[in-house]
Amino acid sequence: MTAAPAERPAAPVPVLDVGGTHVTAALVDPVTGHPVPSSVIRRPLGSHADADGILDDIALTALRLPAGHGPSWGVAMPGPFDYVTGIGRFAGIGKFESLSGVDVGAGLRRRLLDRAGRLCFLNDADAFALGEHRAGAARGHDRVVCLTLGTGIGSSFLRAGLPVHDGPDVPPDGHVHRLSIDGRPLEETVSRRAIRLHHARLTTSHREPAPHQEPDARHEFVLPDVHELAVSAAQGDTAASEVFRYAFDALGRALAPWVDRFGATAVVVGGSMAQSWDLVRPALARGLAQADRAPVRVLQARQPASAPLIGAAHWVQGTVGTS
Questions:
Q1: Bridge partners, residue 268, by sequence
Q2: How far apart are the first and last CA of the chain?
Q3: Contact yes or no for 44/94 (Cβ under 8 A)
Q4: Beta strands in the chain (DSSP E)
Q5: Tens digit of pLDDT for each residue in 7-52?
Q6: Ordered domains of the chain (ranges, CATH)
Q7: Is the pTM for the entire model greater than 0.70?
Q8: Structural contact between residues 154 and 124, judged by C-beta atoms closer than 8 angstroms
Q9: 104 by DSSP, 3-state: which?
Q10: Does residue 228 register a pLDDT over 70?
């Protein structure tokens, strides 16, 4: 009796994580759900280049992946972006402006030739959240809020492992950066730029101006970056410690009523600022404690680099939408 031929293993899922300064390509093992370590490629990406330059750089990174993968790609993209049609909507936000109105999906498929049958786009914060839900700190939580703290604030509200973008229990489009605190847009208090400017105000004046005011234009400033401020805070710099306390307490206060409405049992935090966890977590937890409910768990991401890749592959495997 002839033995049945062994089943061919499923092809890995190709994914892209597009950011403001880098693009990452990888193959995700469909069995383990994790990126194949030898396949991960990260290259610089200029978000201020022209459209052809940006698309060329993304495609060149993608084409460096080994052949033999599946035809459907998961592509994590920052917003504003039309994730159904694959068209950029980046006007007026200071990055990827040249892609506004451009059919990114068509441009990438053309450049990838026979390597791409369909492109499944999703928001980069949603990709991060899906990855953390499958293999990280959000795992086991039916309702969870995931944040990425970098240049600004990325956010995703997950219910039963799916992003929630509308309804009375989430902010507009599920985006925390659209919230306000103390009468100002939240990102005027919680962002890379806001934190650096707040530190400049504290260290160049004997009195603290209102948080939205610029430093005195008569002074010239060399603003330390956020990671440098974190080092200073760890070394006892009170001004550096204060800017972290102020920013992330404000984030917690802005987020608290939405965590309450959504019924989240955890807030999972990733992004470059989460590397300063000893400064971020206490202030964020204190702000969140103002919600009229049981304290929510504040957790650091377990898959900070891989989560968007894991989430993008999961999106491919579970979605029927195409660009």
A1: 146, 299
A2: 47
A3: no
A4: 13-18, 22-28, 41-44, 72-77, 81-82, 87-88, 118-123, 143-149, 153-159, 162-163, 180-181, 184-185, 266-270, 297-300
A5: 567 899 999 999 988 999 999 999 999 999 999 999 999 999 999 9
A6: 13-128+307-318 (3.30.420.40), 137-300 (3.30.420.40)
A7: yes
A8: yes
A9: helix
A10: yes
